[in-house]
């Protein structure tokens, strides 16, 4: 197995789906302009993305090793390329929902496969944690790129135009390129295959049994809370920039890239720091810094007034400061994913990855809908102040998770 080529393929697959998945914040803003939908109606796009992720992961994760990780990723890339080609041909809100549903199904296959494959191409806990952070940081590079790619197709002079949908032709081409790269890669999946593998029903029951283990239960709570925080901010930051900070649509989208950039930098830095420092100390410091940033940055954001701001230079300080929350919270997700996967034998990585994706999807949907509703009822600043509650809860859950993971490591070493 060419490990370098396999890792490169995983990075590229993640990059493509990063753009598609996290375009939801941009699309939420654009469907309000193009199709005239309300904030609460637009917020359901997150559900159309995340619920298919959760359902697909739940159904296939227990036996995805039978399908083959590489084959599952090829199916996902081919499928999403076809749907992207359809999107500009059917410029409606329902097609937008269908696009995100398709994205969710494809990403579920890709993420479960990527997470499970990491265990096949790493040889130690530290290498696993480091690679997990690097691949998640590259995911955020994809998110960052997506903001600029989408904004290049937005017409500020005619916000109601549907020309921005042409971006999906480019995304279809990128998906086909990723398909071609993965097609030539080869992944040795023999470690997760066996001649006496249990039946599908047994596979499924084994995945459900994972949920009742205290370590896994606390993990899924932590993952749910983290994604709730991240997606509530990421999905609504372009709208916050536009309606609260009064930035033009294209600048609102571009400046949301600061969140993606800071998140990528945070995960890249964590890939280095976690080689030398205890993961809990790194994460707690980041979360406390995030809470401080919320309390400092949001009071600086005044309600929109006057002419629309159409340049970075004229943007208020809050537009630069608040998105730095990504740097503070970003190490949480890859770190806890690595801890839970490293605590399990390789044959359980597929089912565990499925649970990770399921509860991450549910957290993302919950965060976006709650934030969208608060945004419509009470305004953007109040909606973002809401993040302080899950930040407080995840601080507690991580302390418990650390205690349980240390106990398991002492009594049940990685197989």
Summary keywords:
mainly alpha, Growth Hormone, Chain: A, 415 residues, 20 helices
Q: How does the SSE layout of this entry go?
A:
Elements: H1 3-21, H2 24-34, H3 39-42, H4 44-60, H5 64-67, H6 69-86, H7 93-121, H8 125-151, H9 167-184, H10 200-211, H11 214-243, H12 249-255, H13 257-273, H14 279-297, H15 317-321, H16 325-329, H17 332-342, H18 349-378, H19 380-385, H20 388-411
What is the CATH fold-level name?
Growth Hormone, Chain: A
Q: How do the SSEs run, as a string of H and E?
A: HHHHHHHHHHHHHHHHHHHH
Strand segment tally: 0
Principal-axis shape equals globular
Number of helical segments? Answer: 20
Largest sheet: none
The fourth-level CATH homologous superfamily is MFS general substrate transporter like domains
Distance between the termini: 22 Å
- Overall radius of gyration: 21 Å
Which structural category do the helix and sheet elements fall into? mainly alpha
Q: Give the name of the CATH architecture.
A: Up-down Bundle
* Range of strand content: under 5%
Overall mean pLDDT stands at: 83
* Helical fraction: over 70%
Provide the domain count.
Answer: 1
Report low-confidence residues grouped into runs of 5 or more: none
What can you tell me about this protein's structure?
The protein has 415 residues and is an all-alpha fold. It has a single domain, classed as Up-down Bundle (Growth Hormone, Chain: A), CATH 1.20.1250.20. The protein has helices at 3-21, 24-34, 39-42, 44-60, 64-67, 69-86, 93-121, 125-151, 167-184, 200-211, 214-243, 249-255, 257-273, 279-297, 317-321, 325-329, 332-342, 349-378, 380-385, 388-411. Helix 1 (3-21) packs antiparallel against helix 7. It is globular, with a radius of gyration of 21 Å.
